[in-house]
Amino acid sequence: MGKKGFAGKALLFAAAMVFAGLGQSASARDWHTTPSSLATEYTQIVDTTDKRVVFLWWIAAPAMNEPTLAPILEKYFILGIAKAEIDPAIDVRFVDLEAPGVLGTDGKPLKLVKEEDQPPGVVTILAGFKSVLVRAIGPMGKGMKLFVYEPGPIGACKPGKVSIPLNGEVYTYDTPIPGCPKP
Q1: In the beta sheet, which residues pair with residue 103?
Q2: What is the reported pTM?
Q3: Of 26, 110, 156, 163, which is least surrounded by CB within 10 A?
Q4: Is residue 180 part of a domain?
């Protein structure tokens, strides 16, 4: 298989992963957007090359459209990451990731909340997301790791920036994210 054919299959794999149940429609673009759909689209990053797919998902309150989750999602920065290495036979191997250093607007690292220190509300949210991810996107859901940080000065609807250095790439989110209420 040529390099272009493999790249196309890797991109197709990534697209299928995103569209397979994480709130996105299968159309080229949403026709009837909502604040939640705009936020969901923005908070998901898919980075593909010929040999890997990296999927990041900031689980932010505006994307969830669930008022009962908002206080927890505003108090913590929850990041899901899946990294898959792909070979030309389309065998996929998920890489076990350590928590990346996440940097806030001020360039200072956000504090990782260790699993044993996570409050019950966060533990419940993570368990629910893990279950949904596995059912919705199968192996990619199983391969996704969820990390919890204290957001410090970062908020989905406050002006700022989040940077996530990961394997030689720096992924960023500018805030406020699309879908936040207008001031």
Answers
A1: 109, 163
A2: 0.80
A3: 26
A4: no
Taking the C-alpha atoms of residue 71 and residue 60, their distance in angstroms, rounded to an integer, is: 10
Q: Of 141 and 146, which is predicted with more confidence? A: 146
Residue whose entry in the numeric block shows the structure tokens 């899901």: 80
pLDDT in tens, 118-142: 999 899 989 988 888 777 777 777 7
Cα dist from 79 to 6, 12, 56, 99, whole Å = 29, 23, 7, 9
- Domain membership of residue 68 (yes or no) is yes
- Count the alpha carbons within 13 Å of 97 in the hemisphere toward its beta carbon: 24
Domain count for the chain: 1
Residue numbers of the domain that contains 55: 3-25+33-175
Whether 166 contacts 81, CB under 8 Å: yes
What pLDDT, on the 0 to 100 scale, is given for residue 122? 93
